[in-house]
Amino acid sequence: MDSLTQIVLGASVGEAVLGKKVGNKAMLYGAIAGTIPDLDVLARYFVDTVTATEWHRGFSHSIFFAILFAPVFGGLIHKIERKSTATFLDWTRLMFWGLLTHPILDAFTTWGTQLFWPFDLRLAFQNIFVIDPLYTLPFLAFLILAMRQNRSSLKRLRYNQTGLIISTSYLLLSLLLKGVAHEKFIDALQVQGIEYTAIDSRPTPFNTILWTANVDTGNAYLIGNYSFFDSEEIEFTVYPKNHQLLGRLQENDTLKRLSKIAEGWYAITKIKDILFFNDLRFGLVSLDPNETRFVFSYELTIKNDELQVKETEKSGRDAKKLFTALWGRMWGN
Questions:
Q1: Contact at 8 Å (CB) between 242 and 267?
Q2: What is the pTM of this model?
């Protein structure tokens, strides 16, 4: 999830663990704990694109990381807060839950997380987008209300608990909504007589009303959208895989690693003799049926007999257009 959401979750968890003893400092250190796992993004400044992408939501998003570093950070805080009545074990417990709840929440997103690192298993339930205002804003509001109360106040406890309950309930509701939307896609494929080998569904950005699905039909992918307010049948747009354009690159180790990152959901496009690897899991940059650009796309070039991978830059203008289009499409076709 986005940084704000993880800060709110971490602060709320910190309050639940130690708020009664140390007040708002529990929220502060909980927020820090909720931020730490995402520092793995700094790897992009030290390693190549593919390696940095592999590391993202890996070790730092695991149970192992939480167990290993909770006492380290807990001990550091204990030294900083020498005058506090909280013990080393108190701070360690706060950091453990702050570090652990971060990847647990991330496991519900499209990217997922390697919660059980070092085992090669990525959990990705794909029932909530990385930014969802309906999850974050009510949670934030109750956290602020709790923050303004005395640490021993019953209202403080209830406000924080309410925020946790509402956000968790919404997360569980999104699982139910995913199940319903997924079945709608399957029904549409059956009605239209489309044969397929795999289907992958997820919410579109910022909401859980409009859903999208990638469908593998063998030589091509179909992409369709479904809103709970739709009155017409789902339409699917065809996107050729074009894997043959890779030629010998299909056997390249770097390309295989990139394919593994995309979990096999990728299409190749060729623009002015340059190949682009497109990760389908995060969708297109617009809802235009003629759109061919994907949110996550990588330029492939050969330099000194080695495959170079460069992530294409994202445009703020595209994001604004997509948001406007999503808002309109969300209310039905």
A1: yes
A2: 0.95
Q: Are 301 and 277 in contact (CB under 8 A)?
A: no
Strand 266-271 to strand 274-284: parallel, antiparallel, or no bridges (unpaired)? antiparallel
Residue given tokens 């499409």 in the structure block: 329
At 84, give phi and psi (nearest 5°): -75, 150
213 contacts 182 by C-beta, under 8 angstroms: yes
Taking the C-alpha atoms of residue 274 and residue 219, their distance in angstroms, rounded to an integer, is 21
Phi and psi torsions of 15, nearest 5°: -65, -40
CA dist list (Å): 320 to 238, 316, 323, 325? 25, 6, 5, 9
Can you list the alpha helix ranges (DSSP code H) found in 109-248? 133-147, 154-191
Q: Which residues pair with 222 in a beta bridge?
A: 215, 238
Distance CA 103, CA 65 (A): 10
Residue with tokens 């149970």: 63
Structure confidence at residue 43 (pLDDT): 95
What is the per-residue pLDDT across 42-70, written as a single tens digit (0 to 9) for each?
999 999 999 999 999 999 999 999 999 99
Whether residue 31 contacts residue 15, with contact meaning beta carbons closer than 8 Å, is answered with: no
For tokens 């190949």, name the residue: 275
Percent of the chain with pLDDT over 90: 94
- Phi, psi angles (nearest 5°) of residue 236: -110, 135
